[in-house]
Structure formats: structure tokens, C-alpha cells
């Protein structure tokens, strides 16, 4: 734990940006954790980064969902109908990820973050064109969102919010509902990576205090700090030029993803 200070700084940044821009921390955490784990000599650094990131998102997802619920911005019937698909998709993808090559995961993560960055840079939003589908289509959509979220360690907001907006859900309710759906994504993904890591990764190759692919000390340090910096980001969201900050954040995502590819995929 000689890099404890780095995990604390990462938690501060993750919480701040989550509160300020309403984004999950996976885009920041995965590349940074990959670099930190490589410097510590951990095997399966990308798998551990994805798992640890999802575990750290559990706390912030809960806090965010509770806050949106207090503002009556969560469509709970939609949450209940999408959650079964999300849980199955996230859990299954996290289990399968253990068998995927590190380079493949790194490329998939980086390409998806490029997609997220393009969304932010050009403020791309789908035009509302339909109503919410029935239970089965919602569950199927949840399955896809959960599976992708597990492979890139995000709370699903970059997929869930555009989908709900496309279905004529108000933006505030789309964000609040997405925040509530981030909790089953984070919990299921953490469980899946914990199980797959325990089954696949050799025990002697994993660091102490690991639960499968989840590195518990990093989860604790990141979560504790992010819990306190997220409210600061929320307060500043009404004072700072968020549109400009989103573009800068998008460029940060691209640079961090490129750095991770340089470390792992080449």
C-alpha cells in the first residue's frame, strides 16, 4: 500500500467529477488503476482495474440514487423492469471477462470511452421519438446495458440516459432513473468479478486483501474520499461552466484511455 496517497487522490477526483458532471468514475478509474496496479507489479492489472472500479462505484451509486429519489426523479417502475436484465447481463459479462485477453478488454474499454467522449464533445443527444416499451424489451435493453457496463466498469449512465431520453422520459427523470440503475450494475459487476477472479486467477498471483479481481484497499480508500468530494462537485455545478468542463473531461478520457492502451495493448 505504498501508493495509498494515489488511491486517495483518485477518489477525490472521481467524486468531484461525478458530482460536477453527473458521470460515473469508471472512465477515470480504470486507466489510472491499471497504471497503479502495473507499477505495483500486480498480475491481471486490467481485470483488477475493472473490478475495483465497479466496487468503488457502489458507494457513489447508492448516494446518487438516494439523492435523486429525494427529488422524486426516479421512475421506480422502470427500475424494477430493467433491473432483472441488468443484473443478469452485468453478472454474466463480469464472469466472461475473466476469460477474455487483457488486450481485448483494453481495446474495448478505450473504444467505448472514445464513444462517450464524442457524446460529450458534440453534446449528442437522441431526439425523443417513442414511448417506453413493455417489460420484456426493457429487461432485454437492461441486459445489454449491464453487459457493456461490466466490460468497461461504468454505472451505465452513458447508455441508460440516452435510451430513456429517446423514449420520451424527461431528462431529470432519465438521469435519476439511470442513477438508481447504477447500483445493481455496480453490485452485480463486483460480485461477478469477485467470483470469476476467485475461479480463474491463481491465488499466488493475486495481492493480499483481494477478493477475486477486486482489490479491497483501493476500494476503501477511493470510496471514503469520493463520498465527501461528490457533494462539492454538486455545489460547483451551478457556478462553473459545465459545458466547457464536459469537453475538457472528454479530452481527459481520451488521453487516459490512450495511456492505458500504450501500457497494455501495444
From TrEMBL:
The keyword Cell membrane appears for this protein: yes
Highest taxon of the lineage: Bacteria
Primary localization class, coarse: membrane
Transmembrane segments: 46-66, 78-99, 105-124, 136-159, 179-201, 213-234, 240-261
Protein localization: Cell membrane; Membrane
Membrane topology annotation: Multi-pass membrane protein
InterPro entries reported for this sequence: TM_pro_TauE-like
Any one GO cellular component localisation term in the record: plasma membrane
Keywords in alphabetical order: Cell membrane, Membrane, Transmembrane, Transmembrane helix
The UniProt record lists the keyword Translocase: no
Family per record: Belongs to the 4-toluene sulfonate uptake permease (TSUP) (TC 2.A.102) family.
The name this protein goes by in its record: Probable membrane transporter protein
Organism: Rheinheimera riviphila
Amino acid at each position: 500500500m505504498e501508493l495509498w496517497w494515489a488511491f486517495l487522490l483518485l477518489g477525490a477526483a472521481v467524486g468531484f467529477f461525478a458530482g460536477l458532471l453527473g458521470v460515473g468514475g469508471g472512465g477515470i478509474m480504470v486507466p489510472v488503476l491499471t497504471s497503479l496496479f502495473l507499477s505495483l507489479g500486480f498480475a491481471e492489472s486490467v481485470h483488477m482495474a475493472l473490478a475495483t472500479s465497479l466496487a468503488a462505484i457502489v458507494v457513489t451509486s447508492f448516494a446518487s440514487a438516494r439523492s435523486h429519489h429525494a427529488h422524486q426523479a426516479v421512475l421506480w417502475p422502470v427500475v424494477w423492469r430493467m433491473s432483472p436484465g441488468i443484473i443478469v447481463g452485468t453478472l454474466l459479462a463480469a464472469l466472461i471477462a475473466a476469460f477474455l485477453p487483457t488486450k481485448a478488454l483494453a481495446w474495448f474499454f478505450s473504444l467505448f470511452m472514445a464513444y462517450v467522449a464524442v457524446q460529450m464533445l458534440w453534446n449528442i443527444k437522441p431526439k425523443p421519438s417513442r414511448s417506453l416499451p413493455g417489460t420484456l424489451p426493457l429487461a432485454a435493453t437492461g441486459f445489454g446495458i449491464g453487459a457493456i457496463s461490466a466490460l468497461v466498469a461504468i454505472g451505465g449512465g452513458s447508455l441508460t440516459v440516452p435510451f430513456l431520453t429517446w423514449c420520451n422520459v424527461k431528462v431529470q427523470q432519465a438521469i435519476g432513473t439511470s442513477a438508481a440503475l447504477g447500483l445493481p450494475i455496480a453490485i452485480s459487476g463486483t460480485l461477478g468479478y469477485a467470483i470469476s477472479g476467485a475461479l480463474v486467477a491463481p491465488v499466488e498471483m493475486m495481492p493480499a486483501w483481494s477478493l477475486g479481481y477486486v482489490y479491497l484497499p483501493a476500494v476503501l480508500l477511493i470510496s471514503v474520499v469520493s463520498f465527501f468530494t461528490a457533494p462539492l462537485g454538486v455545489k460547483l455545478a451551478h457556478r462553473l461552466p459545465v459545458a466547457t468542463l464536459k469537453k475538457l473531461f472528454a479530452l481527459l478520457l481520451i488521453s487516459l484511455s490512450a495511456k492505458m492502451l500504450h501500457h497494455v495493448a501495444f
